[in-house]
Design a protein that fits this description.
alpha+beta; Jelly Rolls; four-stranded antiparallel sheet; 3 helices; globular; binds 2-oxoglutaric acid; binds fe (ii) ion
Length: about 210
């Protein structure tokens, strides 16, 4: 048994799902007031969001045929961001305790998908090329239609899961293992995408975020 978080949900379901299938979808995982505060932040700071980029380091590109959502990285400046990061820190520690993965930090950004915005099928990390180990997605609102997250198996085309975004749902999956896509949003869709990372830095190579 894991200790229930003082902030949110018990992590047992998350850890069991990850052990059994490599991904987990938990509804109402985060406190409603926190989700509402984070959603409000997306709305009030919308003009600070920028077209999302794909790739890493010098390969970083803006490719709007692959994704056209807008993102803003957390800077920890609001109490809502700090509260969210505190919960993710608990998740990080729980995953490390169960799976001995040595996850050492977490990075995340807000994302806004306006009507019609999408993110085509992709992997968040490629074996040996990224320090992203687990992806998290947390939804901040509940659009009426569209914007489903589709998770695919490592091999094969039949989706494992079709998830309609719902405020408070938290999804966690192994970044290298599951291709996934965001279907075109039917209306504004607010979320936080984040990654637990392992440390690839060494004495002569510093591995930064992204
Ligand atoms: O918002 C989602 O449901 C998934 C987003 C995603 O795949 C990403 O940002 O890498
Ligand atoms: Fe992704």
């Amino acid at each position: 048994m894991t200790t229930p978080s003082q902030f949110s949900f018990s992590f047992d379901t998350l850890l069991d799902d990850i052990a059994e299938q490599g991904y987990s979808v938990i509804e109402n995982a985060l406190p409603q007031e926190l989700i509402a505060d984070l959603e409000k932040q997306c709305e009030t700071q919308a003009e600070q969001f920028q077209l999302a980029k794909i790739g890493r380091h010098q390969d970083l590109q803006q490719v709007s045929t692959i994704r056209n959502d807008k993102t803003k990285w957390f800077d920890g400046a609001t109490t809502a961001e700090q509260a969210y990061l505190a919960i993710m820190e608990e998740v990080r520690v729980a995953i490390n305790q169960s799976f001995f993965l040595g996850l050492f930090d977490y990075e995340c950004h807000f994302a806004i998908y306006q009507q019609g915005d999408f993110y085509k099928k992709h992997l968040d990390a490629f074996k040996g090329k990224s320090n992203r180990v687990f992806t998290t997605v947390c939804y901040l609102n509940t659009p009426q239609v569209g914007g489903e997250l589709v998770i695919y198996p490592e091999k094969g085309k039949l989706p494992l899961a079709h998830i309609s975004p719902k405020a408070g749902t938290l999804i966690c999956f192994e970044s290298e293992r599951f291709p996934h896509e965001v279907l075109p949003a039917g209306s504004a869709r607010y979320s936080i995408a984040g990654w637990f990372r392992k440390n690839n830095s060494s004495a002569n190579f510093v591995d930064p975020s992204q």
